[in-house]
Design a protein that fits this description.
FMN binds at residues 15-17, 42, 46, 138-140. This is Putative NAD(P)H nitroreductase. By secondary structure, this protein is an alpha+beta fold. The chain is built from seven helices and four strands, in the order ααβααβαβαβα. The chain has one domain (18-172): NADH Oxidase. The structure holds flavin mononucleotide.
């Protein structure tokens, strides 16, 4: 029998991201990050394919990735504003975990389900970080979908994609709560 966990339920009802630009040092140390990655890896995964892995982007790598974002943005013809906005997550970043979707060959498990599992890992990592008392934010940016950035920046193989950058550091100024969906309007009950 499952035991009710009211604290977990309360957390899920109140949780919210903290915008990456509001995060301040310190970021979690490696020994503090491992339990968060462990929690994230405990995510639904049809067929036990483990279609994901982690790349931890530490402070020392941020400038290289910011500069690479600029190089890729120029090659793509992005505007200076788009480039500045995209590189800012690394210019201001303290620590980010790139959750990498790793498609595994399978006759049984469709590729889309492996993508969903990688998304689940992103949310689980975000929630683990928030539950541990860190500020955290799931970002992408156009560079996360750019092959040059993926291969040059993080050494990804062709079968790999960036599911998200989960920025984790200390919470600065808490932003106001954002409007939340009307669950009743989104829900249809089917009873026959
Ligand atoms: C796949 C994905 C990519 C996202 N990328 C960005 C992004 O690049 N920039 C941004 O400002 N927000 C982005 N967001 C939204 C932020 O995570 C946002 O802070 C979040 O929706 C706040 O929701 P919460 O408080 O319910 O966690 C992204 C969200 C998802 C799911």
């Amino acid at each position: 029998m499952s035991l009710k966990n009211q604290a977990a339920l309360d957390f899920l009802h109140a949780r919210r991201s903290r915008p990456a630009k509001t995060l301040v040092a310190p970021a979690p140390r490696r020994d503090e990050l491992i339990p968060l990655l462990t929690a994230a890896a405990r995510s639904p995964d049809h067929g036990k394919l483990e279609p994901w892995r982690f790349i931890v982007i530490e402070q020392g790598a941020m400038k290289r990735l910011a500069d690479l974002t600029e190089t890729c943005g120029k090659a793509l013809g992005k505007s200076p504003e788009d480039i500045a906005r995209a590189r800012s997550q690394f210019d201001m970043g303290h620590l980010a975990v790139a959750v990498i979707e790793v498609q595994k060959p399978s006759d049984k498990i469709p590729a889309i389900e492996q993508t969903y599992s990688a998304g689940a890992v992103c949310l689980a990592l975000l929630n683990a970080a928030l539950a541990a008392g860190w500020g955290a934010n799931w970002l992408s940016g156009w560079q996360s979908h750019d092959r040059s950035f993926c291969t040059q920046g993080l050494g990804l193989a062709d079968s790999e994609k960036i599911a998200g950058f989960i920025h984790i550091a200390t919470e600065g100024n808490a932003p106001p709560e954002r409007p939340r969906p009307d669950v009743t309007a989104l829900t249809r009950w089917v009873s026959e």
